[in-house]
Design goal:
2 copies of one chain form a homodimer. Chain A has a 7-stranded mixed sheet. Chain A has a 4-stranded mixed sheet with strand order 2-5-3-4. In chain A, helix 2 (70-87) runs parallel beside helix 6 and helix 4 (171-180) crosses helix 5 (187-194). Chain A has helices at residues 16-28, 70-87, 109-122, 171-180, 187-194, 200-208, 221-232, 251-256, 273-280; strands at residues 40-42, 49-58, 91-100, 127-133, 139-148, 162-166, 211-216, 235-239, 263-267, 284-291, 296-301, 304-306. Helices cover 31% and strands 25% of the residues of chain A. The first copy, chain A, is of the alpha+beta class and 317 residues long. The termini of chain A are far apart. The interface between A and B is large, with 93 and 93 residues.
């Protein structure tokens, strides 16, 4: 073991595995903190709870290599994981990133690390841990850590609650449909797919103003409302005509579109949608109401009941 | 979305991905806690720091399918990750487990989950988060969360410190050599490979009695001492004749053996090895000393200097 080279950000031994970690750390710069020991050491503010979640993005399953740049793949993986902190209205404390890198991806490690760093710093989350291994498919598993004095859970929707949605749906599904058909996606749609925004600040704004339950839209609006309904033991009625959507997307396609990372929250009273849009530049819309009785999601369009679209299910293919 | 079936441990929607999560949760029973929301909510004792680390075990890279049962694969992955908490002398708070499951592994999910649950509960760590995805190779990425009032770091070895090692080395390397050669490994060696014990309680005992730096032996004794030496800016002299080893293993092979998950700690004075062995049933041995001056690891055997063996490097193959 040699003396670490001048300017080596952390003192690690020799070897290709450590070289890969070192290259990412150099790219992350001040966006990474406290790496180089067996584990990260972090402080949770007194009185706060720790909030933790893990999410994986696997090549060939969650994305096709030819659809995205390495930077976009890194960004999406970490942004999607951070969305789980938004769904709990937690402040980011840090992220840990485990990357499996096939040999043919090695030269794009720098761009991948850049995308990871972008997503982390956009949400104010330092990168506090990492792991690299060789493998046949690129995969990024991101653990997100956050803190909150009180969290927004899935099981707290009550009879009579208004159901609010942030932003506009449909972009990711429309972009994926184009990509799968070998077409160039509309730029607006593609941007929604490659640069999702975890609604971290929005979630805290909503929690502070009376939202008491939440979920993020990752499996599709209808499916995620189903998780909320099942966890809370309520029915949720949604008028699809009220669901804001990006251009050229049908209401039903918007309700089936996954990987949106918008939030659905429940509130007993009214939330100030005008102030929300002024603050964050995206709409906040009442899309339906919770009802005691049969558990599940009831969608309607033009006043008539419509069947629920299938949710996005990684293992069903 | 249907009403969750009677006895469903958590209220999730329908779909194969959720079925896989549900099957694991059923197997984990009371070993899993607080699953079913977007993230886990945990409490860090007042005054303690949060300790966090992530580790991956990938089929074909870290293990060959034919060498281990699904239960052993699950156990090893989680035990290895928990060893990073031992290396910091932290108490386990919980683990999050992200599993990529190829279709041909699906029927062994139950046994895999059982091994994961065994390793977690053996260290007193509840399973607080999980993720499943489809993929071509089985992989398990484990995030470990712990708490500690003060941690043992890699960078705190000082001139004159005694270097202590827990347990006996060499079993994993000997077992892997047999397996790679198509032979049946010695049972003692195999057991050390498939059932590593994270030295969680041992680490806290050592920290409470004056150990002030530590690392766990995952890359091999010589390589991990190299990490300690580089992080602390010291030289570490080790007499290989003093390194306890399992039967039928040479001293140099023992120093190169990875995935041991024994601990190396530094202490300014003497630690009570007799009391340690009485308490934990494994030896605690002075294997060398730290010296100011040239940074690195100096191994000797029979009074003569020997070259450092290569460390285990996942990306060098």
């Amino acid at each position: 073991v040699k003396r670490p080279p001048e300017g080596d950000p952390i003192a690690l031994g020799a070897g290709a595995e450590f070289d890969a970690i070192r290259a990412m750390i150099v790219r992350w710069g001040t966006r990474a903190r406290g790496l180089g020991d067996d584990a990260a050491v972090l402080q949770v503010p007194r009185g706060d709870s720790l909030v933790a979640s893990v999410d994986s993005a696997v090549e060939g399953r969650h994305f096709q290599r030819e659809w995205f740049s390495a930077r976009e793949i890194g960004y999406r993986a970490v942004a999607a994981a951070l969305s789980d902190l938004a769904a709990m209205a937690a402040r980011p404390l840090g992220v840990l990133v485990a990357v499996t890198i096939p040999a043919e991806w090695r030269q794009e490690l720098d761009e991948l690390a850049e995308g990871i760093g972008e997503a982390a710093s956009a949400s104010g989350a330092p990168i506090v841990g990492g792991n690299t291994t060789d493998g046949d498919a690129l995969s990024i598993t991101t653990t997100v850590l956050g803190t909150a004095f009180s969290v927004l859970r899935r099981d707290a929707v009550r009879d009579g609650d208004n159901m609010y949605l942030t932003g506009r749906l449909g972009g990711p599904a429309a972009a994926l449909r184009a990509l799968r058909g070998g077409k160039k996606p509309d730029l607006e749609h593609r941007d929604r797919l490659v640069h999702p925004t975890p609604r971290i600040r929005e979630a805290r704004w909503l929690a502070e103003r009376g939202a008491h339950a939440a979920i993020d839209v990752s499996d599709g609006l209808a499916a995620d409302l189903g998780h909320l309904a099942a966890a809370s033991g309520v029915g949720i009625e949604v008028d699809l005509d009220c669901v804001p959507r990006v251009s050229s997307v049908s209401a039903l396609d918007a309700a089936a579109s996954g990987e949106e990372y918008e939030l659905v929250v429940a509130a007993a009273g009214a939330l100030d949608a005008v102030e929300f849009e002024r603050t964050f530049g995206i709409p906040l819309t009442v899309i339906g109401r919770a009802r005691a009785g049969e558990v599940g999601v009831m969608l309607s369009q033009g006043g008539a009941r419509v069947a629920n679209p299938p949710g996005y299910d990684h293992l069903s293919r």
